[in-house]
Amino acid sequence: MDHKLRTRIAPTPSGFLHLGNALSFAITWALARQQNGILILRIDDLDNARFRQEYLQDIFDTLHFMGLDYDEGPANAEDFLKNHSQHLRIPGYHTLLQQLVKKGVVYACPCSRKQLSSLPMSNCNLHTCRHERLPLHLPDIAWRIEIPEGTEITFQDRLLQSCTVKLAEEMPDFVVRRKEGIPAYQTASLADDLEMKINTVVRGEDLLYSTAAQLYMAQQLGAEEVLSINFVHHPLVLEPTGEKLSKSHDSLSIAEMRKSGLSSKAFWQILAQTLGWQEAGVEDAKSFLDNFQLERLHMADYPSLKAKVVE
């Protein structure tokens, strides 16, 4: 069995990339290169509502600007749309959904967001659709996966060590297929990781709950290869207000930084400063890799991480 590290950079073309995205790219790339692993560029483009061609191109422009290479994936935007879009993998997503249906853990939900907002999020048993068991083939129906009350997911993280997420409280009965018939993010991400044989997942700490959700789905499917994935949930880059960076703020985007004349060297110096590595002499991808130690991304320095972890 091949135990070589296989990981992925998985941006969404739903806005211009920001410093937080770049930091995640850099950490994932450095971890893969440090361990002579395989790095895959996988662009998550199922969300048609927010997709724009310039956002797609921005992903390739950012990787080029940072000097980051990858081993598998699209060479450019045209190659992506023709050969690598998630829309080409939708049949596989539906196969995974049908496996969940056969397990009897999926139910139909016609509820609007307004209706759902009136339900106490901490008690998913109050979601009456779970008990009605409406036909899954009805139009304008979302599919939800049943999360039994009290369900907790525990996994190991290379930064956070042992994590336990109270899934039934944090993501009760989450959607696995949207009302328009498109597989939800959690479904597509899990299916792609399985297909691409990913064994190491690097994510921002804001996706800790998504990790728990996908592990729960993997448990239902008996997907042992997902249950044994190595996870790295890294700290987020925050705005001065303490909020995480958002793609909706174009003024904070890497594209705007480039337009204002920021050099690649200066950009890498900003990344290093963000990590507290300003004395390390980081000025490009190679020097970042030379200084990279995963253990230096300490949880204690980022108290926002602790709120998501049950000790």
In short:
By secondary structure, the protein is an alpha/beta fold. The chain is 38% helix and 13% strand.
Structural overview:
The structure is a single chain. The protein is α/β, with parallel strands linked by helices and 311 residues long. It has a domain at 6-91 and 183-308: HUPs (Rossmann fold, 3-Layer(aba) Sandwich), CATH 3.40.50.620. It contains 13 helices and nine strands. The strands form four sheets. The protein has a three-stranded antiparallel beta sheet with strand order 3-4-7. The chain has a two-stranded parallel sheet with strand order 1-2. A two-stranded antiparallel ribbon has the order 5-6. A hairpin with a 3-residue loop joins strand 5 (153-157) and strand 6 (161-165). Helix 4 packs across helix 8 (185-195) and helix 8 (185-195) packs across helix 9. Mean pLDDT is 88; it is low at 122-126 and 299-311.
Which features does this protein show?
two-stranded parallel sheet, 9 strands, alpha/beta, globular, 311 residues
Count the beta strands. 9
Under the CATH scheme, which architecture of one domain would be assigned? 3-Layer(aba) Sandwich
Radius of gyration: 20 Å
- Helix amount: 25-40%
Major sheet attributes: 3 strands, antiparallel
Name of the CATH superfamily of one domain: HUPs
Write down the CATH topology of one domain: Rossmann fold
Beta-strand percentage range:
5-15%
> What is the terminal separation in angstroms?
34 Å
Q: Sketch the topology as an H/E string, one letter per element.
A: EHEHHHEHHEEEHEHEHHEHHH
| Average pLDDT | 88
| Weakly predicted, low-confidence segments | 122-126, 299-311
Order of strands across the biggest sheet? 3-4-7
Helix run count: 13
Q: Shape, please?
A: globular
Structural class: alpha/beta
> What is the CATH C-level name of one domain?
Alpha Beta
